[in-house]
Amino acid sequence: MEPDLSPQVHKLCQSAAGKILNDFQPNLMIAIGGGGYVPARILRSFLKRASSPNIPIQAIGLSLYESLPPSEPSAPTTPIEIPGTKVTRTQWLDLSSLSMANLVGKNILIVDEVDDTRTTLEYAVKELEKDVEVARQKLGTGERTRFCIFVVHNKDKPKKGRLPQDMIDEGRYLAAQTVGDVWVCYPWEATFSLTKRKAKEDIATPKKRIMAVAKPVRALAIISVALFIFLIYQVFKTPPNVSGAGDLEREIPNEPMNEETPEPPEPLWRADDYAADNPNAPRINATLLALVRNEELDDMIRSMRDLERTWNRKFNYPWTFFNDVEFDDEFKRLIRLETKAKVNFEVIPKEHWAVPSWINSELFDESARILEEQDIQYGPMVSYHQMCRWNSGMFYKHPALKDVRYYWRVEPKVHFFCDVDYDVFRYMQDHNKTYGFTINLYDAPQSIPTLWPETKRFLAAHPNYVHPNNAEEWVVDNKRRPTHNAKANGYSTCHFWSNFEIGDMDFWRSKAYEDYFEHLDRAGGFFYERWGDAPVHSIALGLFEDKSKIHWFRDIGYQHIPYFNCPNSPKCSGCKTGRFTDGERFLYKEDCRPNWFKYVGMD
User: Fold this and answer.
1) Domain count, the chain
2) Is 584 a catalytic residue?
3) Residue at 160 is within a domain
4) Is residue 268 in some structural domain?
5) Using CB atoms within 10 A as the burial measure, which of 35, 101, 121, 370 is most buried?
6) How many CB atoms are closer than 10 A to CB 479?
7) Residue 323: enclosing H or E segment and its boundaries?
8) pLDDT, tens digit, for every residue of 324-365?
9) SS3 label, residue 451
10) H runs (alpha helix) in 70-188
11) pLDDT averaged over the chain?
């Protein structure tokens, strides 16, 4: 019989209260249901100060282990982010009654009972930070909201989720007790009455104690084993078709990444004479490019270390970092420590970042509200729309890139797994490639309903821009995800996931693309909808470029949560061969590579 953990939980909360009160001084607690409710309430008693009111407690509900139906037909259940396993909101802050202004600039303590895989905690922190950032922008304040985490137990095991590095460094994560990777049974999870236990009834001789298992308990054990077997069967059985042609929750047939993954064909330039200080190195006019904020330093460093380790320490191509504000000295100092290559820090011109004069602010606010109702991620965030516009048609116009032709886009929080032993920029040049990708996905059609109709209007005026060897079939396919095509008004929503892209900026500087971007920009969809640079780039490439000049870098191991490109190669480490996602099985239907292979090929 499990011990009663109530006194232990109570003591652990008491032991942590002093540190929380002295070091963090929370203004509000947010309990993650259902395990965080009891610790939060116990903790509040110990955090109470004389002559001060109780710290208020708000609750959020997150489902990690099961798929829950919506509370009402119109309620969205699609998760905003999926950091490794599916996390679904079942309860969130009532922002109409709890004014978001009360959260901005405050110290907020997030409480849960156990830190297991860290997936739920990562999701909670990210989503709360986004909500507060939206409120901060609306208020026009620079006050920082600080989040802290308290858990009763932390399991000592590898974590799937990640918390912000500054939270760890500043001691804003506190576990009352660290335990092994064991199942912790809390008293509020019990389904039997603890009061019915009587000490004298539990006393038995050693022989009797071995056999003294009540019939109801034995029946419960048998049912539990049967249920466990059934669940294992459900997890590993061949998944069914999802309604809709081609919406398959399964790996694509004959996954090509399971085959041995070779390098691209010769000629390839190897890492000879590429020393950073060699003025005669065979490097061409190319750069590694990142749009990043000062507060993303730690995540950027992790991405940078991966790419330096697997590739750039051999070739020493320069890094160019962009921000809409000045980089601080600490950011510059720590970034320079990660590479021997030249590093450039650039500020985006205001005219490249500002919301265009023709965008109506009232219409934007109304559009943002509709996007939020449709559960479109980042829909209300002005800065996100600005970023999409800049990545779509502004970045290559920056004066710092005037004489640069090729770029490799790198974002914070990405990973590279495989040694790449050739100069990828030379490969692009020597083999006449325009664009390189690793991951090919479907987009949310609700975020781009007028993108394709506007594209058709542009094509009607400029039919000569369409390349004869185009990939239009991939752009407009309506067989694999017909519902997506219908909601996007004729666009398949397939796109190259542009957090990884290796490209030739001469294509973006071409008259065809510049005219196309200008048309889209004037239409306003970067702000009135959520047109991203990924679908904009992908449609343009699919229509205006020779499809043979678009290359799948199948040999570059890459991850941006929750998707992977995992080659079968001895040069790779930490990436399971053939893995497309480590999230829920339904994510497999987001893979648009089968259409690319069907209409274009695997080059």
Assistant:
1) 3
2) no
3) yes
4) no
5) 121
6) 11
7) strand 319-323
8) 999 999 999 999 999 999 999 999 999 999 999 999 999 999
9) helix
10) 119-139, 165-169
11) 86
